[in-house]
């Protein structure tokens, strides 16, 4: 009997909110907002077709080397000496792009899983995470989207050089039908690079995300960060990070403890010029917004994350009101949308059908 041939693959990947205040490049949580990918394998010689619905449908590239999901899948296949088979791909994406809700992380996770299933690679989740880390460059969003829950992670080895080398490559190099031998592609230097723990999170907590209409690319938001920090600022974040992770697990979360623990000196200050109104938004307090635990930028922004245990919509409206009174780069008031989401335990899930001859 010949090896089973995959025929259909269905993948679901949650969005994420990362950093969560002091946990820059460390903390990430998967959210109840899911990217869905449905792939049908086509006969050899067919051309891959991508149908994309959902957020930013008019801007997402639909060619294999330019689309993040298929380009990721081709890279993973090529790293294992294979070419991604032709696919009919239906992508449904409600995760706003360029908003700090991990859309790129979820797309990378989906692409890695797609290659693993379509090319029968047999990769473990840990090895899939290694590749997600190399592509994304930081662990917080992809760890949460792949594994689910409220996650804390560190990198056991640097993937910086491989990350830069990959992104300096033209994607057509590994998206061709004759990809280069995997020795010529950047590979994760060792296995099990993304060391992580899933942290308990109080079930009373909801993630209120306030999503402005403008985008902020993670690449730009990372480019404005300093190369080094003072000891005082590092200690400021380390102290709060350690307190925050435990404080969020309490069955009765304390805003008095959490609000201060969600302060940050590593990323938000340096990015605030890219998010009009942010200082006023981050100055909202539990006293002004009963039910609020803490408030911060979600991921690289510009979405604002308010962790809360009550009054979710009214907390969202307070942020919307500040943005409505702030001027965007186009000179108009900043419109935004409030979503009340849950931190979900499930990470990426997938199923594959086979044709056994
Ligand atoms: N589902 C998707 N399909 C294809 N490309 C995607 C998808 N999600 C994100 N991307 C790509 O990732 C980019 C956004 O990534 P990034 O700047 O990191 O913002 P985010 O905070 O949303 O992750 C989009 O402009 C798009 O090029
Ligand atoms: N730690 C990263 C998080 C990026 O998250 P995303 O949702 O914007 O992809 C950063 O802040 O750069």
Automatic annotation (TrEMBL):
Keyword RNA-binding set for record: no
Family annotation (InterPro entries): GHMP_kinase_C_sf, GHMP_kinase_N_dom, GHMP_knse_ATP-bd_CS, Homoserine_kinase, Ribosomal_Su5_D2-typ_SF, Ribsml_uS5_D2-typ_fold_subgr
Residue stretches making up the GHMP kinase N-terminal domain: 67-149
EC number(s) reported in the record: 2.7.1.39
Pathway annotation from the record: Amino-acid biosynthesis; L-threonine biosynthesis; L-threonine from L-aspartate: step 4/5
One Gene Ontology term from the biological process aspect of the record: threonine biosynthetic process
Key words, A-Z: Amino-acid biosynthesis, ATP-binding, Kinase, Nucleotide-binding, Threonine biosynthesis, Transferase
PROSITE patterns: GHMP_KINASES_ATP (PS00627)
Catalytic reactions on record: L-homoserine + ATP = O-phospho-L-homoserine + ADP + H(+)
GO molecular function: ATP binding; homoserine kinase activity
Family: Belongs to the GHMP kinase family. Homoserine kinase subfamily.
Protein known as: Homoserine kinase
Lineage: Eukaryota, Fungi, Fungi incertae sedis, Chytridiomycota, Chytridiomycota incertae sedis
